[in-house]
Amino acid sequence: MENLKIKLKVEDMIKYGYPALAQFPKSEKFSLVQDIKKTMHSLLEQVIRANRTRDKRMALHNVDVELEILRTQIRLATELKLLPLGKYETWSNHLAEIGRMLGGWLKSVNKG
């Protein structure tokens, strides 16, 4: 059940991210914006794969890597003054919640 919840949280985060990315300057539309969108979709893809695979540990490791890449991209966007601090905080909260859910999923896999 946790895996379905995390998928929905990633979808919610993507829905939040798109309008935030739309406010980036045109000069970033085909670079950082595209990179962040690719990472968001890759994160969603990795969550779906983790739900469907038997080797959960490796799949969840891949989810964790994508999550860390996205955290880094969002932080860099803020440091480059492309993303306002308020939007960064909200987006970071989404990512932190996904991280906590991922941690719970990992714990349950490691127990089993």
Describe the structure.
- The protein is elongated.
- The mean pLDDT is 94.
- The longest helix has 27 residues, at 85-111.
- It is mainly α.
- The relative contact order is 0.17.
- The protein contains 4 helices and no strands.
- The chain is 83% helix and 0% strand.
Topology:
Layout lengths: L1 H21 L9 H21 L3 H24 L5 H27 L1
What would the keywords be for this entry?
112 residues; single chain; 4 helices; elongated; mainly alpha
Radius of gyration: 14 Å
Q: What is the typical, i.e. mean, pLDDT?
A: 94
- Model regions low in confidence, pLDDT < 50 over at least 5 residues: none
Please give the alpha-carbon distance between the first and last residues.
Answer: 15 Å
**What profile does the largest beta sheet have?**
none
Q: What coarse outline follows from CA principal-axis ratios?
A: elongated
Tell me roughly what share of residues is in helical segments. over 70%
Query: Which structural class do you get from the secondary structure elements?
Result: mainly alpha
- Number of DSSP helices? 4
Helix and strand sequence:
HHHH
Query: Strand content of the residues, in percent?
Result: under 5%
* Number of distinct beta strands: 0
